[in-house]
Write a structure and sequence with these properties.
The protein is an all-beta fold. The chain contains 1 helix and 56 strands. Among the domains are: 4-102, Ubiquitin-like (UB roll) (Roll), CATH 3.10.20; 123-181 and 538-693, Immunoglobulin-like (Sandwich); 696-780, Immunoglobulins (Immunoglobulin-like, Sandwich). It has a 24-stranded antiparallel β-barrel. An 8-stranded mixed sheet has the order 1-7-8-2-3-4-6-5. 1% of the residues lie in helices and 63% in strands. A hairpin with a 2-residue loop joins strand 53 and strand 54 (755-763).
């Protein structure tokens, strides 16, 4: 007879007295909790049909309430399943399988993060690194006796852990007129943990929708989310549910699946769901092990305009306004301040305030971002200013609305300013825009391209309004061909129209050709351009452009070739342009060399320009000609010193550096083929790929037995190398083999029949890859 029963335990079931041990039957049963196999467990069954499980096991599977009492059975704590109501219990006596189903809330919660924010922190090293980028060039005319100009720029930086000291310089010599100036110079400290940066020196103040940035010389402290590119600081979608059984979760954005994960029973939260900007329909499908599905859809509007709840974005700065940076080394003016601070209140609202001022004026105003899953995103900013010198007040305000869903995209914005508004950027009122209205809409037709239309009206002080309307069409004909066309008409200031048609052809990943026709008033221009992309590593890139124009003054022809070569130690660039008009020709040229000198950890060398971070990869001991890769792309080969510079690392993200083992001689051992590094900005990292020469030693081991020596066959020898035991076996006739043991006399031990024997192995100093040792005779064995 087979016993099979199922019971549901309910919360208000009366508590039974604890049974006597004689009333319990011990069983070894396979336990399944919410269809998760927990293996064989010792369980007890009372005469009343109540099951008891070990408390320690239950606490490892679920969140067991502390108030539940334990029952001592055979010296261990057990818990009655009656006490963990509600629950469903089923027992099959034939298979000895006990199935228990609890509410999902009884299990620990799970959080699945689509884009994890926790990634490896920046690589901290005690090595000082330095970068000196330079560019030297000459430009002039190819005909006539026009003046030739020499230009030079320099960008030097010194990095130690979180601290960066950086300065720029400019030099121009044009016909004896020499200008030399110091550019931006500053000492900064990056704080990745707080995602903030302290700057002392020259810096740009933070720009907003209503105030542009200026350059101050002083001190600034600002949030810096670029220190953690993996961190998602805008609002993200989330979803909470509960899972009864082991299940699979699929997340779709539209028809695209972006995420799949197996989950255990219990509360479940899907967090940090982010995607391209716009209104997206998120679909979540939960499928349990029996194939039953739950399908949930919810809308979400993704945007980078707001902040996630609890996050802040800020900038506080004070200093002297600096002007004419490229021509003057220290043109500092009046003292000024600039500040803004924004708070993410919730997923729908971001609030903030901003202020700026100098000796003669001050301004302050609010900002907000409203995000709606169904309506899009609305941004509002305003500042009211007061001019203390003349007592006049002014204001500026900006409102922008964006909505994108599927094939449609809409952007509306307006900005107004009163004639008396003043800010750090608009000290010259002639540059102030009294209003700037803009509207654009685009729609993508399936297999028929994208149509767009926009209208803009601007008016500056003492000028008439200028209106510009634009119609555009963009159509990918295939993976290699695309066509685009625009029509633009301007009224008011500088009226006119322009019609443009362009055709692009991309037959290969590194080659592009483009042709176009443009009509502007009485001028019609045809152009063609083709060339190859410049590789990240060593190689050549080129562009050749030709243009023909028909004007009222006659035809004009122009040819413009450009060539760039990325060498190991520098980049060379040469460009020229020749124009033919009315039987005469004029031409200009420009040639330059750009490169860098970098230093880190005692190693230095020349390289192509270093725009961000760099690494010096070294094969130790040196092997020339080894290919080194950055993120699977070849960046160069090691030189005679076994060194190669990698000038294109990206700061604050993982960079994968590897070597090609096909270039490594067979006698070398490769300890590591790849390394990961997360550098600071403008930091150098010294990477060492250890590839010692493999030196092998072979010989025979014998021991004395009476008057003769006997091979020590199939025994294990233990040799001490610097206090560390190294083991190797012997084979037939006592033959042995080991590798990479330093020269010297090394104590060794071997277990012989009936005794343990100590002896010495002498390893000679040699450069040979294979060395045969003299026969080694251990002690007597009798």
């Amino acid at each position: 007879m087979t016993l099979r029963f199922e019971r549901v335990l309910v919360p208000d079931r009366p508590r039974k007295p604890v049974p006597e041990a004689s009333e319990l039957q011990g069983l070894i049963a396979t336990v399944k909790v919410n269809e998760q196999d927990k293996g064989e467990q010792i369980v007890y069954l009372s005469r009343a049909g109540t099951f008891y499980l070990r408390r320690e096991a239950l606490e490892g599977w679920m969140r067991l309430p502390h108030e539940i009492a334990s029952t001592a059975i055979e010296g261990e704590a057990y818990v009655s399943l009656d006490a963990i109501a509600p629950a469903r219990v089923a027992f099959d006596e034939a298979t000895l399988v006990l199935k228990v189903a609890f509410n999902p809330d009884a299990f620990p919660g799970q959080v699945l993060t689509y884009q994890p924010s926790e990634r490896p922190p920046p690589t901290l090293t005690q090595d000082v690194s330095a970068i000196f980028n330079y560019q030297v060039g000459q430009s002039g005319a190819t005909t006539g006796s026009a003046t030739r100009s020499w230009t030079a720029t320099a960008d030097a930086s010194l990095r130690l852990r979180e601290w960066l000291l950086r300065s720029q310089a400019y030099y121009t010599d044009s016909g004896g007129s020499v200008v030399a100036a110091r550019g931006l110079s500053a000492l900064s400290r990056d704080d990745p943990a707080r995602r903030a940066r302290l700057t002392i020196g020259d810096f740009n103040t933070g720009a907003t929708d209503v105030t542009g940035g200026v350059v101050l010389g002083g001190i600034a402290y600002a949030s810096a989310y670029d220190l953690d590119p993996y961190f998602v600081h805008q609002p993200t979608a989330s979803y909470r549910t509960a899972v009864d059984l082991p299940s699979q979760v699929d997340v779709y954005i539209g028809e695209t699946r972006i995420f799949r994960q197996a989950v255990a029973p219990g509360p479940l939260e899907l967090a940090n769901l982010s995607y391209l900007a716009g209104r997206r329909d998120i679909r979540i499908v939960v499928r349990d092990i029996f194939g039953r599905e739950r399908d949930v859809s919810l809308p979400f509007y993704f945007t980078d305009r707001g902040l996630a709840p609890g996050l802040q974005d800020f900038s506080y700065s004070v200093g002297s306004i600096r002007r004419n940076i490229t021509t003057e080394s220290a043109d500092y003016g009046e003292t000024a301040f600039s500040a803004y601070h924004r708070f993410g209140i919730n997923d729908a609202l971001t609030l903030g305030a901003q202020a700026e001022g100098a000796r003669g004026f001050a301004g302050i105003g609010p900002s907000l971002v409203l995000r709606s899953d169904r309506l899009g995103v609305l941004s509002v900013e305003a500042i009211a200013s007061h001019n203390r010198e003349n007592g006049e007040n002014g204001y500026t305000a900006s409102v922008a609305y964006a909505y994108q869903r599927g094939p449609m995209s809409v952007l509306l914005s307006t900005r107004r300013a009163s004639p008396r508004f003043v800010s750090l950027q608009t000290a010259d009122l002639a540059s102030l825009s009294l209003h700037d209205h803009y509207a654009t809409i685009s729609y993508t037709l399936p297999h028929a391209g994208t149509v767009s239309a926009s209208l803009r009206e601007r008016q500056a002080v003492d000028q008439r309004p200028a209106r510009t309307g634009t119609l555009g069409y963009f159509l990918p004909l295939s993976r290699r061909w695309l066509v685009q066309t625009t029509y633009q008409r301007t009224t008011g200031v500088a009226p006119g129209y322009e019609f443009f048609v362009g055709l692009q052809y991309t037959p290969a990943a590194n080659f592009t050709a483009f042709s176009s026709v443009r009509t502007t008033g009485d001028v019609r221009t045809g152009a063609v351009q083709f060339g190859s992309l410049l590789p990240d590593g060593e190689g050549v890139g080129y562009q050749i452009a030709a243009e023909a124009s028909s004007t009222p003054d006659g035809p004009t022809r122009t040819a413009s070739p450009e060539l760039t070569y990325n060498g190991r130690y520098a980049s060379l660039q040469a460009s020229a342009s020749q124009t033919w008009q009315r039987g005469s020709s004029t031409g200009v040229y420009d040639v330059s060399v750009r490169g860098a000198v970098a230093y880190v950890g005692g190693g230095w060398g020349f390289s192509r320009p270093i725009d961000d971070a760099f690494a010096l990869a070294r094969v130790d001991p040196a092997i020339p000609g080894v290919r080194v890769y950055l993120n699977q792309q070849e960046m160069g080969r090691t030189d005679d010193r076994g060194i190669v510079f990698l000038p294109r690392l990206v700061s604050y993200v993982q960079n994968h550096i590897s070597v090609d083992d096909r270039d490594v001689p067979i006698e070398r051992a490769i300890e590591q083929r790849s390394l990961e590094v997360v550098p600071f900005a403008r930091a150098g990292t010294l990477l060492s790929f250890r590839m010692p020469v493999t030196r092998s030693f072979s010989g025979t081991l014998r021991y004395r037995s009476g008057e003769r020596t006997v091979p020590a066959e199939f025994v294990l020898v233990t040799m001490k190398i610097g206090g560390r035991p190294v083991e190797f076996p012997t084979g037939r006739d006592g033959a042995f083999y080991f590798e990479n043991v330093p020269p010297g006399a090394h104590a060794a031990t071997v277990e012989l029949p009936g005794r343990s024997c100590d002896f010495t192995i002498v390893v000679p100093a040699t450069e040979e890859p294979v060395t045969q040792l003299p026969e080694v005779v251990a002690c007597d064995a009798r």
